[in-house]
Amino acid sequence: MIITRTPFRISFVGGGTDIPEFYKLHKGAVISSSINKYMYISSHPFFDKNKIRLKYSQTETVSSIGEIQHELLKRIFTEMNVSNGIELSSIADIVSGTGMGSSSSFTVGVLHNLAVQNKKVIDKNDLAHTAYEIERSLYAAIGKQDQYAASFGGLNLFEFSKNGAVTRTPILLNSDFKTALNKRLLLFYVGSRTSTKNILKSYEYEKKRTVLIQMTDLVYDLKNALEKESFSDFGRILHEGWLLKKSISNQISNTEIDTIYETALKNGAKGGKLLGAGASGFMLFYCEEKYQANVIESLQPTYRRFDFSFEEDGSKVIFQDTLI
């Protein structure tokens, strides 16, 4: 049996600039961090050597890759040339469609697991690139940041060049500052699940190119703020980034999301954003600890708070039994 653990991520600024429709014209950039919420993928030999069994939100038992109903798994199994006689299962800490890159964590985790199963060595960059190419082949409107965040882990600046190359620059923070920053971030599940692909299709890249360039510039402002250990700048930049992102498409926010955001600000938060493409999922707020009780009380119990911590590992094998 092989078990891989692949993290979800929170993206602070730059989301939307990692789409080819933008970065092929102007370099894109994102700052994100993986967190200690994970996608677990397990695989082991299946009792019936002529079958493939898959367990996710449903269970499939098929005689060939071509019969697989889950189109992403079918594409991955085809890419990895998987033979019959395998059982693969997935378990996640967070449901899909909530803005934390779950689809990419799933893709990276499955690819990583199958590579180990096939005794293939795959580095983190190749893992992320392959995951992106697979997802892009299925879903035309998809960004490039999530696969790299899931594969590498940690707090990073990712830059997306016009030729499609991705450059990763780890942002190395003093451990005390990083812990203090983590404590100032509040995460709330605001409900419902949505299709990231449909929202990304609504992004008006031509009309909003100037806004996306401003969002890219904010990424470097945030990098400077982190390196200067400036909490006040972090909150301000998060707020400015959210206002810019909302202007890209009328599907990114809605009345409920706006009300939640305004409520948090009135109660002491200095900035925040809806994670992911928009419309649903998780909201992240920057808030000094002395005001956090007010923010939490104003949003709970309607909206559930989730504790989280930054993590550094990225996708990794956490169990491997070669005797099975």
Helices and strands, with pairings:
Elements: E1 2-13, H1 20-23, E2 28-45, E3 52-55, E4 59-62, H2 71-79, E5 86-92, H3 102-117, H4 124-138, H5 145-152, E6 155-160, E7 166-170, H6 175-183, E8 185-191, H7 196-201, H8 209-228, H9 231-246, H10 255-266, E9 271-274, E10 281-286, H11 289-299, E11 304-306, E12 316-320
Parallel strand pairs: 3-5
Antiparallel strand pairs: 1-2, 1-12, 2-5, 2-6, 3-4, 6-7, 8-10, 8-11, 9-10
Domain GHMP kinase C-terminal: 225-290
Keywords: ATP-binding, Kinase, Nucleotide-binding, Transferase
Domain GHMP kinase N-terminal: 73-154
Query: What do the pLDDT scores average to?
Result: 93
Tally of separate helices? 11
Number of domains: 2
Label the structural class.
alpha+beta
**Number of E-state strands:** 12
User: What assembly state would you assign to the polypeptide chains in this entry?
Assistant: single chain
| CATH fold description of the largest domain | Ribosomal Protein S5, domain 2
In the CATH scheme, the class of the largest domain would be Alpha Beta
GO molecular function: ATP binding; fucokinase activity
EC number: 2.7.1.168
Family: Belongs to the GHMP kinase family.
Protein name: D-glycero-alpha-D-manno-heptose 7-phosphate kinase
Written overview of the protein:
With 324 residues, this protein is α+β, with helices and mostly antiparallel strands. The protein has two domains: 2-171 and 316-320, 2-Layer Sandwich (Ribosomal Protein S5, domain 2), CATH 3.30.230; 175-306, Alpha-Beta Plaits (2-Layer Sandwich). 39% of the residues lie in helices and 25% in strands. The protein contains eleven helices and twelve strands. It has helices at 20-23, 71-79, 102-117, 124-138, 145-152, 175-183, 196-201, 209-228, 231-246, 255-266, 289-299, and strands at 2-13, 28-45, 52-55, 59-62, 86-92, 155-160, 166-170, 185-191, 271-274, 281-286, 304-306, 316-320. Strands 1, 2, 3, 4, 5, 6, 7 and 12 form an eight-stranded mixed beta sheet that branches. The chain has a four-stranded antiparallel beta sheet with strand order 9-10-8-11. Strand 6 (155-160) and strand 7 form a beta hairpin. The mean pLDDT is 93.
